[in-house]
Amino acid sequence: MDYQRDEHRVHLIVYHLIWCPKRRKKVLVDDVGRDCRAIIEAKCAEQGWEILELAMQPDHIHLFV
Q1: CB 47: neighbour CB atoms within 10 A?
Q2: Could you tell me the sign of the dihedral formed by the alpha carbons of 46, 6, 54, 16, in that order?
Q3: How many CB atoms lie within 10 A of CB 39?
Q4: Distance of alpha carbon 18 from the chain centroid
Q5: Closest C-alpha among 2, 23, 21 to residue 13
Q6: Strands, E, within the chain: which ranges?
Q7: What CA–CA distance (Å, rounded) separates 33 from 17?
Q8: Which range has the worst mean pLDDT, 3-7, 18-22, 39-43, 46-50?
Q9: Neighbours of 64 (CB within 10 A)
Q10: pTM (2 decimals)?
Q11: Per-residue confidence at 2, pLDDT binned at 50, 70, 90?
Q12: Are the CB atoms for 18 and 62 separated by under 8 Å?
């Protein structure tokens, strides 16, 4: 992680996103988990975001972008 600099400012923006399925059901396993990870990685690459950490549990996802 490097600070971004331009003419008038220096900044480091990091987002911590947490996603939980309804009632924290354990649905993020096997094919669903792999597909979800692939979709998240593809969308971040499309937007030009760097994934700092992606932790998937059966009942929730932590994403640092």
Answers
A1: 8
A2: negative
A3: 10
A4: 8
A5: 2
A6: 4-5, 10-11, 16-19, 53-57, 60-64
A7: 17
A8: 3-7
A9: 14
A10: 0.80
A11: confident
A12: yes
